[in-house]
């Protein structure tokens, strides 16, 4: 894949970039190692000062960097501004709390008395240069949610960003430099995916995090496994959205629209499979389809647009294939199911779509629909809803709408996912761990769990 900015709203190539040569990669790896030697020794107060400065700069840059993101991957400019603001918040959150999250822990002396220790403690030390392989869909947020905790922990970062967001990738490197981070603390590697293996095998790179598709995760994890290097994987999702008999159907349907089409439908934690109890099925489905039909599709730079284009032509054709396969096998199209009027041959748009009558023989039942396409299922009981929700190779998050405490407890106990969001949609927050199970990956980002993933959890045992 060429490293280039191609405007998804028009299909026009705006800028292309040369990939780094192996000599240039070597220079950056050497710089990362050198920077780590110093950075690991800095105090939390110094790290916090730098990260606050980067957050302040990013806050000033929001209008400009939002436009860049929209130009590169097509998200609406309003959502791009919100993404950048969320990054500022996460940076400040970690700047203010990392020292506490990584404070030494002192096990109860009674629990370790027979170890012979006069004193024992657990110390969180950094690991070294970490490679971050990142996707285009939240081109700032995915990177910041790795970089903020990693830098606060004393690690340094090497970013291999998706090939279609090079300007955002370069902006990030420049942001950290402008904030005063020494050269080498956070570097962007403009490289294609074929060059990742060599970087990951380099002994100076000690660990990797990847957010992206299952094939990319498998590839990076297998190389890292071969090298015995730690990885965190945040992969795809096909989150269920259960609407149960006692739900507030009006709110559930309104939120369902946002949950499905946020980021033009290209979010790992978007609700994708709407599993609705027969008692509320007609009321929910009618409102949901109406809401999806009413969305304004168009120019992502226009503040009144709800849904912009998909990020690439390939992304749109993959999505259209999933819809066509389902329709060929008998799924009903409640709205959409095609390119929107006026955009048949301009940009990579796809109309917000609701499909009903989906069954397990259809590809869309098993695969991730990465665009504004929802599938709705009718179920007769909570048991059936939970079984259908778990009938997926993914396990990222899940959503449940109910006023019944028993339903909530049952879902928290049985839904196979890294999150259960009740009467709301899944969203990440710096203070809450984020990640999945099954084919959605492993490890956690954000909160204490996220910052500790790339730490050497060190046992210190002292006899007198
Ligand atoms: P992708 O094709 O897997 O790309 C993600 C990153 O991996 C890019 O930097 C890509 O580089 C690189 N890559 C691709 N194949 C690779 C390989 N074999 N070895 C090493 N690196 C490789 O995914 P995407 O299309 O950008 O993003 C969409 C996917 O990400 C969806 O499945 C979505 O659900 C998932 N996602 C998950 C989360 C989460 O938190 N769980 C968040 C956001 C997105 P190139 O661009 O150069 O190919």
UniProtKB/TrEMBL annotation:
Gene Ontology MF: a single term: aldehyde dehydrogenase [NAD(P)+] activity
Q: Which domain of life is it from?
A: Bacteria
Provide the Aldehyde dehydrogenase domain boundaries. Answer: 3-460
Which InterPro entries does the record associate with it?
A: Ald_DH/histidinol_DH (IPR016161), Ald_DH_C (IPR016163), Ald_DH_CS_CYS (IPR016160), Ald_DH_N (IPR016162), Aldehyde_DH_dom (IPR015590), ALDH_GabD1-like (IPR044148), GABD/Sad-like (IPR047110)
Name the UniProt key words of this record, in alphabetical order.
Answer: NADP, Oxidoreductase
User: Which residue stretches, if any, does this entry annotate as coiled coil?
Assistant: none
NCBIfam families reported for this sequence: PRK09406.1
Return the similarity comment.
Belongs to the aldehyde dehydrogenase family.
Q: Return the protein name.
A: NADP-dependent succinic semialdehyde dehydrogenase
- Tell me which species this is from: Streptomyces albidoflavus
């Amino acid at each position: 894949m060429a490293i280039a900015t191609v405007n998804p709203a028009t299909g026009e190539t705006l800028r292309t970039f040369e990939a780094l040569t192996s000599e240039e990669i070597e220079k950056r790896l050497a710089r990362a190692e050198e920077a780590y030697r110093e950075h690991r020794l800095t105090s939390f107060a110094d790290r916090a000062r730098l990260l606050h400065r980067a957050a302040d700069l990013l806050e000033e840059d929001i209008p400009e960097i939002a436009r860049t993101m929209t130009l590169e991957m097509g998200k609406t400019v309003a959502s791009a501004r919100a993404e950048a603001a969320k990054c500022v918040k996460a940076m400040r959150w970690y700047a203010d709390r990392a020292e506490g999250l990584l404070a030494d822990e002192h096990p109860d002396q009674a629990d370790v008395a027979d170890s012979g220790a006069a004193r024992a403690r657990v110390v969180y030390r950094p690991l070294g240069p970490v490679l971050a392989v990142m996707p285009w869909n939240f081109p700032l947020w995915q990177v910041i949610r790795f970089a903020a905790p990693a830098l606060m922990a004393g690690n340094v970062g090497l970013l291999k960003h998706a090939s279609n967001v090079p300007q955002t990738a370069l902006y990030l490197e420049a942001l950290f430099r402008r904030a005063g981070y020494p050269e080498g603390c956070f570097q962007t590697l403009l490289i294609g995916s074929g060059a990742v293996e060599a970087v990951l095998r380099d002994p100076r790179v000690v660990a990797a995090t990847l957010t992206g598709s299952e094939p990319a995760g498998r590839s990076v994890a297998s190389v890292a496994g071969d090298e015995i290097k730690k990885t965190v994987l945040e992969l795809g999702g096909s989150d269920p959205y259960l609407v149960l008999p006692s739900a507030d159907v009006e709110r559930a349907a309104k939120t369902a629209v946002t949950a499905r089409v946020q980021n033009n439908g290209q979010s790992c934690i978007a609700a994708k499979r709407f599993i609705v109890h027969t008692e509320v099925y007609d009321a929910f489905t009618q409102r949901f389809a109406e809401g999806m039909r009413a969305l304004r599709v168009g120019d992502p730079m226009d503040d009144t647009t709800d849904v912009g284009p998909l990020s690439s032509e390939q992304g749109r054709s993959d999505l259209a294939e999933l819809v066509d396969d389902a329709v060929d096998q008998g799924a009903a199209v409640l709205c959409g199911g095609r390119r929107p009027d006026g955009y048949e041959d301009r940009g990579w748009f796809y109309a917000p779509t609701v499909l009903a009558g989906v069954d397990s023989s259809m590809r869309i039942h098993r695969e991730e629909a990465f665009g504004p396409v929802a599938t709705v299922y009718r179920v007769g009981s909570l048991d059936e809803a939970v079984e259908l929700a778990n009938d997926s190779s993914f396990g990222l998050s899940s959503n449940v709408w109910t006023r019944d405490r028993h339903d909530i407890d049952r879902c928290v106990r049985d839904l196979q996912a890294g999150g259960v969001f009740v009467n709301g949609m899944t969203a990440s927050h710096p203070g809450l761990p984020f990640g999945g199970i099954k084919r959605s990956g492993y490890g956690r980002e954000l909160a204490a769990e996220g910052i500790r993933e790339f730490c050497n959890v060190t046992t210190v045992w002292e006899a007198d």
